[in-house]
Amino acid sequence: MLEGTLAKMGQYIEDAVREVYDYLRPSPECWRFKDYKTNQKSQFELSDRVILSGAIDTYRGNHFSVNHYRHDMIRAIDNVFHTLDGRGLVKTYDGELCNAIEKCLKTEGGGLTTYFEFKCFKNGNLHLKFRRPDLVARLNQIAGGMTLKP
User: What CA–CA distance (Å, rounded) separates 147 from 45?
Assistant: First the structure.
């Protein structure tokens, strides 16, 4: 069983990359993306930044927190970027991005991790800027390679 799992590891990583790509990709039909101009640059590949609506909860005192419905996807985004960089999976349960958001004060609103620059807003939006364009290009190559441009 272990040998079978290890043999399929490449496929598991590719599936994780595609899942994150589909979550972040600017699809005009998707309700999460249709109102944000930042997400409208290209329907077929990710640019250097994206807006994720409903990713932040603001009810917790003077800190922002990750919405519990979006927590797994934010952690998956962090995992994929760590994997694409060759650093393996994140070393904590939540990951670097979720931990940074949880520590972010409402007066500051933003922060910085190894792979992301982020800004949290009281309307629940998370503005995410990718600090490593080479990893975004790799993500576009792996997951977006199957998407045909017109």
Answer: 9
Decide if 150 is inside a domain: no
Instruction: Judge whether 87 and 95 are in contact, CB under 8 Å.
Output: no
Print the domain residue range for 98: 2-144
Choice among 3-17, 34-48, 54-68 with the minimum mean pLDDT: 34-48
Which residue in this structure is represented by tokens 């080479």? Answer: 134
Residue 77, in any domain of the structure: yes
- Tokens 């990713």, residue located: 55
Mean pLDDT of 86-113: 84
The reply to whether 94 falls in a domain is yes
CA distance 76 to 67: 14
- Are 103 and 63 in contact by the 8 Å Cβ rule? The answer is yes
Residue 60 reports pLDDT greater than 80: no
Phi, psi at 65, each rounded to 5°:
-145, 160
First-residue to last-residue Cα distance in the chain: 43
What is the count of structural domains for the chain?
1
- Cβ atoms of 66 and 76 closer than 8 Å: no
pTM of the model: 0.79
Q: Is residue 27 part of a domain?
A: yes
Inform me whether the pLDDT recorded for 128 exceeds 90.
yes
